[in-house]
């Protein structure tokens, strides 16, 4: 599989290859997700939206943290919606978790609904990131938190180690400055960024 096909299947997983990508992400991104989540305070009664929920493992991590709250996951891939629902079956049946087929650009929620919105390994593929960040901001409560966690970002050693990904269409890899500028343009405030360059890990926290 060439690099363009790898990016395409990660951007919108479908079929058997897409399902395998979702299962792989569930297994291999656990430590990244836990590291990212550790940057924010999550109350037991928080309402959380996970945008681009993929195979649903991050949803399950979040659901375990909000016993008195609720977690929604959205993904524009019907394959991932099915996989995330399957993984979280008991929580879905009890209505503690809800998984919905939806793009980030048109979230099916009212204004000011969520305490926290998370985005793990997904911003690379958003069609219009500033406008999509505005849509995320719309569904956050006042003083709500957006948490972005990625395992690839532009830094001093990035291009040398990850050059196949830097010029592929349909995938945008951002620097810390890019995140700050985009979040400011989308109306967010109080942006904080933590990096682990040797792992290519970045966490971005912004407030509405």
**CATH topology-level fold name:** Rossmann fold
Overall pLDDT metric: 89
Element pattern in H and E: HHHEHEHHEEHEHHEE
What's the CATH class label? Alpha Beta
Low-confidence segments: none
Main sheet strand line-up: 3-2-1-4-5-7-6
Helix segment count? 9
| Class by alpha and beta content | alpha/beta
Total beta strands: 7
* CATH homologous superfamily annotation: Vaccinia Virus protein VP39
Structural description of this entry:
With 208 residues, the chain is an alpha/beta fold. It has one domain: Vaccinia Virus protein VP39 (Rossmann fold), CATH 3.40.50.150. Helices cover 41% and strands 24% of the residues. It contains nine helices and seven strands. Strands 3-2-1-4-5-7-6 form a seven-stranded mixed beta sheet, sandwiched between helices. The termini are far apart. The relative contact order is 0.15. The mean pLDDT is 89.
Keywords:
208 residues, alpha/beta, Rossmann fold, 9 helices, 41% helix, 24% strand
Question: What secondary-structure arrangement, pairings included, does this model have?
Answer:
Blueprint: H1 3-11, H2 15-28, H3 30-37, E1 47-51, H4 57-65, E2 70-75, H5 78-87, H6 89-93, E3 97-101, E4 114-120, H7 129-139, E5 140-150, H8 158-166, H9 176-185, E6 189-196, E7 201-207
Parallel strand pairs: 1-2, 1-4, 2-3, 4-5
Antiparallel strand pairs: 5-7, 6-7
